[in-house]
Design a protein that fits this description.
With about 110 residues, this protein is an all-alpha fold. The protein has four helices and no strands. It is globular and about 45 Å long.
Length: about 110
């Protein structure tokens, strides 16, 4: 793994260590970390709706950059949550991404 790819994981490990120290790691805390992913996904939807101006009362309230930042929040929240279920989350994510990309390149059977 290159430094650029390792850096987010080192930050996530720091976040996890801080959360573990402050909040513990009991089942309620783990559930909260999972719920945080859903909360952040809702914020992506809100930003996208705002970017499209779909609420006539509000108009355009967000930009593509806002959506991108919210997507980063989803990714980071998922990375934090993944730590609760996997000893080497970076390795698992890399393996899973490689496996799913390979599936897309397989011929479609009739």
């Amino acid at each position: 793994m290159t430094d650029a790819h390792a850096l987010p994981w080192s930050h996530v490990r720091s976040i996890v260590a801080c959360l573990d120290a402050r909040n513990g790691t009991d089942p309620d805390e783990i559930a909260t970390r999972l719920l945080k992913v859903t909360e952040e996904a809702g914020e992506v939807a809100q930003a996208y709706i705002g970017m499209q101006g779909q609420n006539p009362r509000k108009g355009i309230t967000h930009t593509r950059a806002d959506v991108a930042v919210e997507l980063c929040d989803v990714i980071l929240s998922a990375m934090v949550a993944l730590h609760s279920f996997e000893d080497d989350p970076a390795e698992l994510l890399a393996f899973d991404a490689k496996h799913k990309a390979a599936r897309l390149h397989r011929p479609i059977s009739a």
